[in-house]
Amino acid sequence: MFAFCALLIVAAICALPDLSYAFQQKDLDKLLATGECKWCDLRKADLSGSKLQGAQLAGAVLSNANLTGADLTGADLTGAVLSGADLTGADLTGAYMRSAYFYGANLSGANLSKTTLDKANLKDAELSGVILSGASLSGTIWRNGSKCLEGSAGECMGDPARRGGTDKGFAF
Fold it and tell me: Of 31, 77, 78, 152, which residue is most buried, by most CB within 10 angstroms?
């Protein structure tokens, strides 16, 4: 019976069309040609140093993508999945990233000033040297799993009751 089940699983996997764990070339071509690629599959794409100002990437999957030094100023990354992505030194000034998923992403030295990160997930993200001046962080899941209070801007303010009643919230 076990051998029969294993055979069925292998047959099902072989029958699936284009089961891949990397970006779709047509999606990458579309992004580079038009600056728009909502809901695209850009997993593991190399976009290092790309000029993507104002790009429309809402809902795009950019897991494990290389975005080091990319210019994404004013980009729309609403609900985008950037888990494990490398955004070292990327410029995301003024980007809209509400509900984006950055689990385990590297944002070292990235400029996130004036961004909207409300309800984004930054759990286990690397944030050393990141610039957050003027960034909206209401409801964001911070790198340690704590949730930022509504109105958090420029820094993640946590629940004062969890830190002995101080106004500063979490010390990140």
Answer: 77
CA distance 31 to 42: 9
* Higher per-residue pLDDT: 121 or 9: 121
Q: What is the pLDDT of residue 50?
A: 96
Rounded to whole angstroms, the Cα distance separating 59 from 97 reads 10
Cα separation, 141 vs 118, whole angstroms: 9
Residue type, 98: R
d(CA 4, CA 9) in angstroms, rounded, equals 9
Q: What is the mean pLDDT of residues 90-112?
A: 97
Half-sphere exposure of 35 (CA within 13 A, CB side): 11
Question: C-alpha angle 142/146/148, rounded to 5°?
Answer: 70
Q: What angle do CA 103, 29, 45 make, to 5 degrees?
A: 30
Q: What phi, psi does 46 have (nearest 5°)?
A: -95, 100
Q: How far apart are CA 114 and CA 145, in angstroms?
A: 22
45-78 pLDDT, tens per residue? Answer: 999 999 999 999 999 999 999 999 999 999 999 9
